[in-house]
Amino acid sequence: MKKLNVKKGFSLIELLVVIAIIGILSAVGITAYTGYTANAKEQASRTQFAQIVSLVNAEMAKCSLGSGTYAWGGNCSAGIVEDTDEDIATHMVNNLGMKSPYDQTIAVGTDQANPAFVYHLAAAADPTGDGDFTIYCDETADTCNIRNNPGNGVVTMLSQTLTQE
Question: In what order do the strands lie in the sheet with 158-163?
């Protein structure tokens, strides 16, 4: 019976080839992952915008039918008041648990001087940071303007003006 000669271990060249292949696959994977996460954050920001516009629109429609209270507090009979924008911003974070898709640690801001994930303004303006919202409610016109910067290099801000009937 003839014995087979079995080679034990890998040669240095074989090991270097395996390491090179792993490095190439890692580089491609990291690049793809970065793109997927950036797109997911942008989409999450757009979804939050749609949810808030829908909520504010529904609450305004509900209140136009009669008495009651807004989801963010305040009597429907009072309509849009000075603090409505701040109340909506606070409701988004405290009651709905919304956080910035770009930084889950960002807390709600309350004014333009301290911009954060959501802040209300003295006048309508575009949000500055990726995923940020601005909310401006005008009590004399019974309107609320909600704007969102979806981030990910998108130049166009999302904007919706809602009117209390």
Answer: 118-120, 133-138, 143-148, 158-163
